[in-house]
Amino acid sequence: MRATSCKHKFVTTVPDSLDDGVVYVAMEYRTAVHKCFCGCGSEVATALSPTDWKLTYDGVSVSLYPSIGNWALDCQSHYWIDRNAVKWAGQWSKEQIEAGRAHDRMAKDRYYDKPEVVAKQEAAPQAPQRGLVAWIKSWFD
């Protein structure tokens, strides 16, 4: 049965056995772990980092951003954790999943400053400050 809410627990190490409906947050390891909220029982780990997930704790609840897409699991569930509420998102197509993965790889490359990615980004044409219409017209001049 799909969950609509969860609890959180700050831990020093992730327990061997996870309880349903609990997000375990191990700050020392920059990881949040939980059982998939669809009820399939799979364990889901979200790495907390500038290029992966961000955790917000408001003193009462936790939120994880961006959404959690369990594309490698049979269930392929997709949801957000927003202030301890599980908000279900739509299923993604294979094309959407691949585009999301490519976006994630590019974000990591940019963050970790891989020279080949930076060079490609610098080589991409940039719109001048004079306005979009003038810039598009310049393509045809």
Description:
This protein has about 140 residues and is α+β, with helices and mostly antiparallel strands. It folds into 2 domains: about 1-90, no CATH class; about 95-125, no CATH class. About 25% of the residues lie in helices and about 30% in strands. The chain is built from 3 helices and 8 strands. It has helices spanning about 95-110, 115-125, 130-140, and strands spanning about 5-10, 20-25, 30-35, 45, 55, 60-70, 80, 85-90. A 4-stranded mixed beta sheet has the order 1-2-3-4, with no helix packed on it. Strands 5-6-7-8 form a 4-stranded antiparallel beta sheet, with no helix packed on it. A hairpin with a 4-residue loop joins strand 5 (about 55) and strand 6. The radius of gyration is 20 Å and the shape is globular. It starts with 6 loop residues before the first strand and ends with a helix.
What's the β-strand tally? Answer: 8
**Sheet having the most strands:** 4 strands, mixed
The total of helices stands at: 3
**Average pLDDT level:** 87
What separation lies between the terminal Cα atoms? 61 Å
Topology overview:
Elements: E1 7-10, E2 22-26, E3 31-35, E4 43-47, E5 54-57, E6 62-69, E7 78-82, E8 85-88, H1 94-111, H2 115-123, H3 132-139
Parallel strand pairs: 1-2
Antiparallel strand pairs: 2-3, 3-4, 5-6, 6-7, 7-8
